[in-house]
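User: Some background: our group keeps a shared notebook of sequences we're curious about, and every so often someone picks one and asks for a predicted structure to add to the entry. Today it's my turn. The entry only has the sequence so far, pasted here. Could you supply the structure so I can complete it?
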Amino acid sequence: MAKKSFLDKLSDLTKIQHRAAFTNVDKHISQLNFETHFAELAAARYSCRSFSDRELNPDKVNKILDVARLAPTAANRQPVHVWAVTGADALERLHKVHAAFNAPAVFMIGAKADEAWIRGYDNKNGAETDAAIVATHIMLEAADLGLGNIWIGSYDPAKIADVFPETAGYEITALIAVGHPADDAGPGPKHEARKALGEFATVL
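Assistant: Of course. Here's the predicted structure to add to the notebook entry:
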């Protein structure tokens, strides 16, 4: 039996919560092994810098986009747009300004500041934070689908805007390259380097 994806398990959970015939919901929820699956996924996901030339199934692209759409944003303003760069012409345009590890798909996340929630105390605009949450959903869903991915932070926003006029009005805050990992792909030497929990977090 094929392993269920994170999105499939979420759907199962929703069905359980809405099915009145279940008298012991906690038992059924625990059977999904929800917590363990996410912890394993978060630990296994790494920044993939080498992709195969295998094409990406459009269904997987749509699944990634749908999970990105579910990402929480401040006041549910959703001041974000995602462009899935997968077509030959679009990839050629992107490669003129950034190689993106030659991934078969690159998700460009744009934030629109004038549509975002603003914190009243200090006028902090939430657009970039919202976009970062969307980008994280994209990476984790891609990993759950067995795909390699990497958040690309080093790029020239002006050049991206020039070759993609479709993004006008948005600040491109992240490029997420996604595809099937190449045979030589794997975690980098710093992948498992983490601060000790006591240094990283404080319980007050």
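Suggested note for the entry: The beta strands are 80-85, 105-111, 118-119, 124-125, 148-152, 171-179. The domain at 58-179 is CATH 3.40.109.10 (NADH Oxidase).
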